Amino acid sequence: MKNKKVVNVLLGVLALMLVVGMAYQFTPNVGSLFGGNRQTGTPALTVNGQTITVEELEAIRQSNPVLASAETGVLADDFKTFIVSQAVRQQLYKQAAADIDVSRADVNKQVDQVREANNLTDNGAWTDALQGVGLTDAAYRAQVRDQLAVQRKVEELQKTAAPATDAEARLYYDLNPQAFRTEARVVGRQIVVADEAKAKALLAQARGGADFAQLASANSTEFKDRGGALGPVENGSPRPVAQVALPAEVGAAAFALTSGGITDVVQSGGKFYIVKVERFLAPATKPFEDAKADAVTAVNEQKKNAVVERWASDLERDVKIEAVDPNWKTENPAVAQVAGQNIPYADVVAQVVNNQQFAGLLGQVPADQAGQLVNGILKPQVVEGLIQGFGAQKIAQDRKLALAGTRQEVAAALAAYGARDVRVTDTDLQAYYTENRAQFETPGSATLTEVSFADRAKAQAFAQGWSGQGSLVTAAARGGGTVSERGQVTAGAETLGEELSAAIFTAQNLRAVGDTSLTGVVQVGERFVVAAVSDLQRATVKPLAEVRDQIREQVLAQKRQEAGQAYLAAQIATLKPVNNLQKVLAAQEKRVAAQTPKTPATQTPATPAAGSEGTGTTPAQGSGTGTRSAGGTPATETPATGSGTSESGSTNSSNSGTTER
Question: Which terminus of the chain has fewer CB atoms gathered within 10 Å of its CB, N or C?
């Protein structure tokens, strides 16, 4: 069992290849898929004449818990679409890479690395592990060979991408300023000692006006030779350093001093630090000349991605699929049209299946309810996103914008272009600060001892009569109360309760008693409580001036996102896209209902005479999609994936209809 899990993991990792920023999975248990035309198993589909078996499709289903979570209904229909689309893609990539040479030595090297990484160098253990997932060594090596071939094919294609132009690099820089920002840095000095008392004494001297560099040279255990300078001294001044140059607690304290100053004593790693911030350098965008090389690299990667995306789309557009097994026949209509392109339903399903929130939803609600939620919320959002992706390149071309990349990369860049002039005003900052005041509040805290009474009068007598003399526990017991030590509590904590929290942190009538204070009587449930409070710290709120720079980036990012999405939506609307999602979903629901065996109405059937044949009507087995085999469950539909697929490109044949895509 252990070996089976190990090999599932290692094959899954080996089978994962990044193409255009998406993970195209070459499913581990499909060795026969990569073994040429010698198929073993039950034929389900042919892809350009090459067979995919039922066993291979079921292996894809079993490799993902999401795909195995529904056996009937619209989700099961969707999952069949996904499974078939993945298998078709795998076969297409394998066929397209048939001209790539992969040597036996290359395959052996890859296999040896996998075996060593998983402690399977023993031949017996390796064979057992492979058998546990239905593979032989030869089949696995064939699979590795084809995966390496596809990888090299992709690398060859990427080399054909045109290099980034200056215009493309400059526009990328302009639209992604956050990618070229320097870190916040400080110019400063530190004193590090091993004794807290000494650190506090040195802090007092520094704040009293003593020369900090001289104090560091005389006392610090670190950087004393340069007066405690955090960075090397050049031309008489320390070089700036980033926060990562300091221990976490020390860095947090130092970088909070955006106006300069001296930190308190900060303990970290058994040492005590004092940092003087002489100058705070806020993050800033690098000049284009300094950032150009990085911008060119980023655009080159986008252009490589775009080449591979076009290659994959072309393969899917021209594919010929034959549904041999009617149980694996699927529908893949155009869910939308934009800029002369059809968006296949399988692309929608793929994004749903790979959505993390969808996976979580399946674990919380029944499959049929999850399907309704997905159809009503997630799929409409996915379709709108796909429409934007498919239409963005047309918009960029029409406006002569030097944008590069895949559909989704161009859509994101187009949104950034629409938000390029967004600025943050003082009014924006004030509004955000007011609406999110709780973000900047340090809640009150205190050390709490509760004295609880069953009778209000006794609680009142204690609250008014105890003078702080003697033991609180003794005084409470004498008055009929029970004492509970709560330790440190925080304002607003659920365990504290609203009434008691308000009495401690909001009320102004606490009565001082010795080194503690008493609240009035607070009813908590059926008990009456008097709280003894010490070490009380009232809530504090950072002023706007202190957090202005912190929230500016948040507000700017939010405004840019809103403006960018509005611009992108407006531009796509000029293309007059057609959204067929509701029609597609209605047709799917009708089709799935027709395929579901009907449950006979509850009634008392006529009892046939002994030995006679029954005369009752037998429910139809299926409806136009072929008879299901016993126990057969619809996996995922056979999607015609790719930008050129239309409703006419779905695999609608029963047993032998060939579809060109």
Answer: N
